[in-house]
Amino acid sequence: MKRKRRNSRKPTIFISWSESSLDHKRWVEYLVKCLCADGIKVVWDAWDLREGHNKYEFMLRIIKDPAIKRVLIICDYIYKAKADKGSDGVGVETRIIQQYVLENPAQEKFIPIVREFDENQKPCVPCYLNGVVYINLSYNINDRRYKRGYQRLIKNIYGRSVPRK
């Protein structure tokens, strides 16, 4: 994990994901802890949604909250399938996010984080996110490519430019 950044204004983000497997949940939790260590306030249903809460109201409130700087959509095969089918909590989030993304084509709030690619080497992203630039974190967390993708994500969240050619 990274050292905490000294920043008076912590950006706040939301994690949209699907509990595909225990391994996937651990991967998402590791990502969340790294983001927190880098000075980012993370809203994640696994930590913030409690018994008695209405999960649909929670999702709607969080996704529409202007204080939420970014919504990271953790895309794997299961998330894509649920989003495209419109099932479970992912389906509810998809309806909310899809409307926003389609009405605001220049939006930067919703960022697909690709964890898996399909058999044709296409990123596993929901259909409504096809064409939206994603960050590839499908590599092993010790791989340089993962670290570059993670740094790109951090720069995006903090609003810093990513060097271009």
Structural class: alpha/beta
What's the count of strands?
Answer: 5
| Strand line-up of the largest beta sheet | 2-1-3-4-5
Q: Return Rg in Å.
A: 15 Å
Per CATH, the class reads: Alpha Beta
Distance between the termini: 29 Å
Low-confidence stretches: none
What is the ordering of alpha helices and beta strands? EHEHHEHHEEH
The largest sheet is: 5 strands, parallel
What does this structure look like?
The chain has a 5-stranded parallel β-sheet, with helices on both faces. The chain contains 6 helices and 5 strands, in the order βαβααβααββα. The chain is 42% helix and 15% strand. It is of the alpha/beta class and 165 residues long. The mean pLDDT is 90. It has a single domain, classed as 3-Layer(aba) Sandwich (Rossmann fold). Helix 3 packs parallel to helix 5.
Topology:
Layout: E1 12-16, H1 22-37, E2 41-44, H2 45-48, H3 55-64, E3 68-75, H4 77-85, H5 88-103, E4 110-114, E5 135-136, H6 144-158
Parallel strand pairs: 1-2, 1-3, 3-4, 4-5
Helix pairs in contact: 3-5, 4-5
Brief descriptors of the model:
Rossmann fold; alpha/beta; 5-stranded parallel sheet; 5 strands; 42% helix; globular; 165 residues
Question: How would you briefly describe this protein structure?
Answer:
With 165 residues, the chain is of the alpha/beta class.
